[in-house]
Amino acid sequence: MADVTILHNTACSTSKHALAEADNTATAAEVVHYLKTPLDRAALLALIGKLEDPPADLVRKDPHFAQLGLDADDFVTPEAVADLLVEHPRLMQRPVLIKGERAIIGRPKDRVRPFLEP
After folding, report:
1. DSSP SS3 for 33
2. Which of 2, 31, 50, 92 is deepest in the core (most CB within 10 A)?
């Protein structure tokens, strides 16, 4: 059984760092490639409920976000964030680490190791 679940994007260096930290700390990790198997609304709401970060932080405000003409002020509630990420999974911040009833966004990178340690 995995100690932690990592929502991972193979193209992201910060996400790759989280996997390396799991290896370095001998943490058994279940890796979920969330772009291949996106989370549904219920799973996103459950994740947001565990998240130690504000729900809005789960949304990447990157050039794709801007191209879609989105306004960050519209995505601050758990429901709005979940609805957006169901429609546009690539806007989910990564990596996300889940351990029991806690979850964090693994940015900046130095947040990952303390979260993985017992």
Report:
1. strand
2. 92
